[in-house]
Each structure stands twice: as structure tokens, then as C-alpha cells.
């Protein structure tokens, strides 16, 4: 598949994966694959194909709707933290895609792939999430959006497993009652969900995501 449509490519790797390989009962790649399936189920056609895993602890995902790319990346991290107690760096590259295979998407080519890969190389400690834009968007607007994402990342790095699970539900627009009813390993109260979300900074994160999802489409077509 080829084309010049603007998409978002998410490239990431697991934080401290070498340590995890020696203590975890499941290979890191299986944990990533599980989360990739949950993301596909939650976002459906907005996600192109299945997550691609390489080098054991690295992954790549293509989001057809670039406006929700930050939400998807944050959801990926929230699921990892809630289910497995681990985290991932995430670099989001925006741009045209020249070749987009149905399988093994890491073999895809185009601006979005290049920018995403470059962004991951530059995503050094303590930052775990960043954005990379085409040349025309590498201006104050792009820098401003990157600053917002880094502030979201600062909050996300402090999430507990419970906060992560609550935020994961909120990111896919579940109500607090729905999150409480589907809570793992067993349902909890709506009041407990409210407390988790408040401590996770969800109100501020939601405002930031709403802003990003409003301005990204206009910026990427300008």
C-alpha cells in the first residue's frame, strides 16, 4: 500500500528492558503484543494493522488519524503500567507515508517513519515521550505542542498501577462508573476511580489532549 496521506507513526521501546528480561515470566515482546491487541480493539480502524515488534523490546504502530496519536501513545503507556508495571518511551512522527505494508509495518517508508525513528533516538532521559513534525511545522507551534506533551509525560511517569488503569479507561471515554465496573482484578467504587483520576492529573491531561486534538489537524495540513 502506498500513498501520501498524513499519518502518525509511533515508535517506542521498553524502559529498562534488559532488567525485565531476567525477572519476568513472559517475554517483553509478548507483553507488547498484548497491549497492541488491546489498542487495536479500542481504536479499531484508526490503527493500521497490528503492532510490529522488533529487537525484542521495540515496537512500531501506525495511526491513520494523526489527531489522536498522543492519546494512543498515552494509552499504550497506561496499559503497560497498569497491567505489567513497566513503561515505554514513545516517539510520534507526523508526515506523509510512501509505503505502508499490511504486515511488518516497520518496513514502511516515508516522512512519518523517518521522523518517528529520529525522535526516539533523541528521546533521552528523563523524557519518555516526544513529537516530531515535518520541516514546515518545526516552528514555535511545534515546539509548543512538544512542551505540552512533555508535561503530560512528566505526570505519566509518576502514575501508580491503579492510576494508570483509571486513566486507560478515561482515555477511551469510559465513564467513572464503567471504569469501576470493569476494574481488574475485581470491581471497585466510582469514588475510588475519581480519586485515582484526580491524583493522576486526569482533568489537566484531558484538557491538554482536547487542545492537541483540535490544533494538530489544522497544523498538519497548513
Task: Outline the structure in words.
The chain is 52% helix and 16% strand. With 222 residues, it is α+β, with helices and mostly antiparallel strands. The protein has a single domain (6-216), classed as Reverse transcriptase/Diguanylate cyclase domain (Alpha-Beta Plaits, 2-Layer Sandwich). Strands 2-3-1-4-5 form a five-stranded mixed beta sheet. The radius of gyration is 17 Å and the shape is globular.
**Percent of sequence in beta strands:** 15-25%
Quote the distance from N terminus to C terminus.
25 Å
**CATH-scheme architecture:** 2-Layer Sandwich
Total number of distinct structural domains:
1
Q: Order of SSEs, N→C?
A: EHHEEHEHEHHHHH
**Structural class determined from secondary elements:** alpha+beta
CATH fold-level assignment: Alpha-Beta Plaits
The CATH H-level homologous superfamily: Reverse transcriptase/Diguanylate cyclase domain
Shape: globular
Backbone CA Rg? 17 Å
Secondary structure: number of strands: 5
What share of residues is helical? 40-55%
CATH top level assignment: Alpha Beta
Main sheet characteristics: 5 strands, mixed
The main sheet orders its strands as 2-3-1-4-5
